[in-house]
Request: fold
Amino acid sequence: SSVIRGIFNQPTSVVENCCLSGNKHRPVYQPYSASPDSYTTELVNCTIINTQSGTGVYSNGGTYLLTNCIVDSAWGLAAATPGKGIIEANFSMVNSTPGSGGFIGGTGNIPYNPTFLAGGLAGELDPASDGVDAGDNDAAPATDIVGVCRPSSGTADMGAFEVSDCVASAA
Reply:
């Protein structure tokens, strides 16, 4: 059977402002390694939604650090092999319970309840969403996935899209 993934990671890396929607299975995947210290992958202001099956983020070894992210999937977040993978989320909205499958909670997380903009791009937050103005400014990139200034109203939004009318000027 085929397995479709958006990010298949082995080395230490940082991924910012990504939006993965409608992936078939495990859109973010870290393969087997001997310990959680083997690799560290940071996801910052990423939106991972509408996964058809499997987990939104899966670690079978290594560590994922999520900041300002929105993660939804058919089976929740993490589901890491016990003792072999760690997924920590800070200032994020995820549909899993800390302590399950290698997922440890962090600070600033809010209950999973994003409201996406009807008719907008996949993962674009509605201005009334709980994820608006709920992120960590220190971790957020200067612009969102489409070039909107971040933060636009004092505090960065969670996910790949910032709710604003501001557009960054070209350098």
